[in-house]
Design goal:
It contains ten helices and 17 strands. It has 346 residues and is α+β, with helices and mostly antiparallel strands. Strands 1, 4, 13, 14, 15 and 16 form a six-stranded mixed beta sheet that branches. It has a five-stranded mixed beta sheet with strand order 7-17-12-8-9, with helices on both faces.
Length: 346
C-alpha cells in the first residue's frame, strides 16, 4: 500500500506543475530576459555601451596595426539572492488521505492528491512572480530592491540619468500634448547613440491617453474618413506607422507581500522604450538543496521552471511531509544602456 511520502514527492509535484503549465504563455519579462542556468550563486555579466561605429584609421603599408581598445565595455559581479518557502500537508488532509489509501479508493486518492499538488504548486508559481517582479522593476526603474524576511538587497544597473531617464514634454493626459513628437525625440536621441528603438511597454494609465489626445484623434479620424471610433488598438497602430515604435500594454499585477496590495509590474505613467531582441537574462543559480540534498535519503529534489528546486522531506514528529521551493536568481541587464524610461506625468 502506498504511503504519503511515496505520493507527495518532489518529482510528482514538479511533473504536475509542468503538465499544468505546458500551454501557458510566458510572462513578458521572460520574453525580454530569458532564463539561463548558472552554477553557484555568483553572477558576472558584461554591459556594453553600444557606441556608434568608429571609422577604421588609415595606415601605411608594412606598418604595425594600430591597436583599438574596446569601447564602453564594463564587467559586473554580484551575488544572487536566495528565495525559499515551504508548505506542510495539514493534519486533516493527511488523515483523510491515509484513510482513502487504506480503503484502496484510487479515484478519491487522485482527487485529494490533485488538491495537495495544486496547493504545493502555488510555491512554484510564486517563484515565477518573484522573477517577474525583479525583471520588470529592473526594466522600469533601472534598479531592484528586495526587502523582506529580515533580508535586504539592492541592485543598481547604472542607467544614465540624463539620456535614459527622461520626461515627456508635457503631461500625456493633457489632450494638446505632442505625444508623437515625444516618441520621435526618444527614437532620434537613441539613434544618435547607436540604438534603434522599435518597442515600448506601458500600462493602461498611459494607453488611455492615446484615445483622448487631440492630434491622435484627428489623425485617426482623417485616416479612416471620420467613420470609426478611436480605440486603443487603432491608436497603437497609428503610432507605429508614424514612429516605428510598437507599443505593448502590460497590465499584469502581483500581490505585494509587505502590504497585501495588488501592485502593477509596470508603474503608472511610465513608458519603457526598447530595441529588438533579448535585453539580458534571468539567471538561475544553484540552490543549497540542489547542491547538497540530491543524494540525501531523507529528501528528494526536483528542478523545475528553469532552475527552481522543489524539495520534499519526511517529518518524523508529527508525521508529515514538507514541500520546500527555493531558488537562487537574479536578472542581468546586458543591454541596460539601450533602453529609455520616460515619465509621462509632468
Amino acid at each position: 500500500m502506498a504511503e504519503l511520502k511515496d505520493l507527495v514527492t518532489a518529482s510528482n509535484i514538479a511533473a504536475y506543475w509542468e503538465e499544468k503549465n505546458q500551454n501557458v504563455q510566458p510572462l513578458l519579462g521572460e520574453t525580454l530576459f530569458p532564463k539561463k542556468r548558472r552554477l553557484g550563486t555568483k553572477l558576472e555579466w558584461v554591459k556594453g555601451a553600444n557606441n556608434q561605429p568608429v571609422a577604421l584609421r588609415p595606415s601605411s603599408y608594412d606598418a604595425k596595426a594600430i591597436r583599438r581598445d574596446r569601447q564602453g565595455i564594463d564587467q559586473y559581479t554580484t551575488t544572487m539572492p536566495f528565495f525559499k518557502e515551504s508548505k506542510y500537508i495539514d493534519e486533516e488532509m493527511r488523515q483523510e488521505l491515509n484513510n482513502v489509501i487504506a480503503a484502496n479508493n484510487a479515484e478519491v486518492v487522485n482527487a485529494i492528491l490533485t488538491n495537495i499538488y495544486d496547493d504545493e504548486a502555488e510555491l512554484i508559481d510564486a517563484s515565477e512572480i518573484a522573477l517577474e517582479r525583479m525583471r520588470m522593476e529592473m526594466l522600469s526603474t533601472g534598479t531592484i530592491t528586495l526587502s523582506d524576511n529580515a533580508q535586504s538587497f539592492e541592485y543598481d544597473y547604472l542607467l544614465d540619468a540624463t539620456t535614459q531617464k527622461v520626461n515627456a514634454s508635457a503631461d500625456w493626459a493633457t489632450a494638446s500634448t505632442d505625444i508623437i513628437g515625444d516618441i520621435v525625440k526618444v527614437v532620434e536621441d537613441a539613434k544618435a547613440r547607436g540604438v534603434n528603438i522599435t518597442r515600448a511597454v506601458c500600462n493602461s494609465s498611459v494607453a488611455k491617453n492615446f484615445r483622448t489626445n487631440n492630434a491622435l484623434k484627428n489623425a485617426i479620424y482623417v485616416f479612416a474618413g471620420g467613420t470609426v471610433p478611436v480605440t486603443t488598438a487603432r491608436a497603437l497602430d497609428y503610432i507605429y506607422n508614424e514612429t516605428g515604435v510598437r507599443f505593448y500594454v502590460y497590465d499584469n499585477v502581483y500581490v505585494n507581500a509587505a502590504n497585501g496590495q495588488a501592485t502593477k509590474y509596470i508603474p503608472d505613467d511610465t513608458v519603457v522604450f526598447m530595441p529588438d531582441g533579448d535585453l539580458g537574462n534571468t539567471n538561475m543559480g544553484t540552490t543549497p538543496e540542489e547542491s547538497d540534498l540530491r543524494n540525501n535519503l531523507n529528501a528528494e529534489v526536483a528542478i523545475v521552471n528553469g532552475g527552481v528546486a522543489v524539495t520534499t522531506s519526511q517529518i518524523v514528529d508529527p508525521v508529515n511531509v514538507e514541500t520546500k521551493v527555493s531558488m537562487v536568481a537574479l536578472p542581468s541587464f546586458e543591454r541596460a544602456s539601450d533602453i529609455v524610461i520616460m515619465d509621462t506625468d509632468i
